[in-house]
Amino acid sequence: MTIPYKLKNRDLYLKKLIGFQDTEPVKVITGIRRCGKSSLLKLMIRHLLDSGILQEQILEMNFESHDFQNITSDELYHFVKERIIPDRRMYLFFDELQRIPAWENAVNAFRVDFDCDIYITGSNAYLLSSEYSTYLSGRCVEIRMLPLSFREFLYFHDFEIRETRSALGGMRRQAFDKNGEAYDLRDIFDAYMRFGGMPGIADIGLDQEKALMLLEGIYSTVIIRDILEREKRRGQRQITDPVLLRKIILFLADNIGNNVSVSSIGNTLMNEGLLDDGTRKKTPSAHTVQAYIGALLESYFFYEIKRFDIKGKEYLRTLGKYYLVDIGLRNYLLGFRDRDSGHAIENIVYFELLRRGYDVSIGKIDNSEVDFIATTANEKKYIQVTESMQSEDVRRRELAPLQKIRDNYEKIVLSLDPGLDSTYNGIKSFNLIDWLLS
Fold first, then answer.
1. Which of 63, 94, 259, 390 is found 20 to 30 A from 429 (Cα to Cα)?
2. What are the DSSP E strand ranges found in 225-367?
3. What are the angstrom distances between the C-alpha of 318 and each of 20, 42, 260, 315, 368?
4. Domain boundary residue among 103, 127, 144?
5. What are phi and psi of 292, to 5 degrees?
6. Quick check: is 385 in a domain?
7. End position of a domain, from candidates 144, 175, 198
8. The sheet that has 171-176: what strands, in order across it?
């Protein structure tokens, strides 16, 4: 078993895996394709070896390898059984295991028959994350991975942050590459906004043409394998129209951060002539559109966020919002543009809140909206996101919804240009980049 020399740490997820090490549940790592699931398995293997586990106690199998292409569930069981060391705990790592019919029979048998700790990556081409618990009799824990955060983006692209003294005598943070050249953090954030956080981009460098090719490959694989082929394999015929699927993707990508009514998407696409290919006789139904969106959510391409009535203290059924898992994928789909960078920044903040373990919803108060309510078991924050707080009009608009909230939970405005004031009557104003790195 070889651990790549250049393997980069993903501490956020590795710590979660280590936290469940040597516990009964099967550890299932899920997330959009190419976000680093296989690398996380290798990081866990490296952790085990570093902590004194013997190489012979670790068994790693990648079922995309030709070696295991036509293996059956019974053959898998016997393959593993032959390699079990008596009176030693075994660590079993299975990458893309769901390619094997009845794989769950083997995994459930391993749990019963052997002293072992099991880790698998979940491919949505074969199984939805919601189905693992059923297949594994409820004895599994899901570790959901996301593309790189901004902090990870700096690390993966070999930038180091140092504090330097400014001309006015204060301290400021700058990024330095491995040659010692200094960069403004805002410039690197702009690169993150452009290229996104797919780990593979760090291997090819910040080259737009190569990045678009990589993103196109991810997009195509998700759409063809994880959605269209999965539907065919499962004998379901709900999602059969690749043109409609792409149009819905483009619509949602173009409307991240906007309130979206599923029932109106089909009408909008038809009214704007986006589905007029000469063969379509009628507008797709809301039920059909909902099925397509459901498939996009299941493949981790989009995430849905619900609205919460702050005064009424209840979730609202109408008008959710959708965010795209990686801003680079959005740029691949829609082209690079600056005109709605505010929504792109919102997109980045939403996924950062998920990484930090928050449940996130949109806040509604009277006729106003708070971008995010972020909650954990013992914490709640209200967050507004905007590009700049320099303009009086913008300040008034962004602060007004927060000022209406009468409880004492923390209220924050995040912006790339926060101005000189750090608070507005108790509402805190933070530089977005500093917050992402905090």
1. 259
2. 302-309, 314-324, 359-365
3. 38, 43, 9, 9, 15
4. 144
5. -65, -45
6. no
7. 144
8. 160-165, 171-176, 182-183
Round to whole Å and give the CA distance between 93 and 111.
Answer: 13
Question: How many residues appear in the chain?
Answer: 438
pLDDT digits (tens, 9 = 90+) for 382-416: 999 999 999 999 999 999 999 999 999 999 999 99
Round to the nearest angstrom and report the end-to-end CA distance of the chain. 36
Report the CATH number at residue 103: 3.40.50.300
Q: What is the rounded (10 degree) CA torsion for 400, 401, 403, 408?
A: -160
CA–CA gap between residue 4 and residue 272 (Å, rounded): 50
| Segments forming the whole domain that contains residue 159 | 148-292
pTM score, two decimals? 0.92
Query: In this structure, which amino acid lies at residue 391?
Result: S
Does 371 fall in a domain?
A: no
223, 198: one domain = yes
CB of 90 within 8 A of CB of 116? yes
Q: DSSP strand E in 168-218: where?
A: 171-176, 182-183
CB 269 within 8 A of CB 247: yes
Domain count, the chain: 2
Tokens of 163: 């504090």
Let me know if residue 416 belongs to a domain.
no
Question: Is residue 138 domain-shared with residue 16, that is, in the same domain?
Answer: yes
Q: What is the pLDDT of residues 80-137, one digit of tens each?
A: 999 999 999 999 999 988 888 899 999 999 999 999 999 999 767 666 667 777 788 7
Q: What are phi and psi of 61, to 5 degrees?
A: -135, 130
As a whole number of angstroms, the distance between CA 107 and CA 95 comes to 13
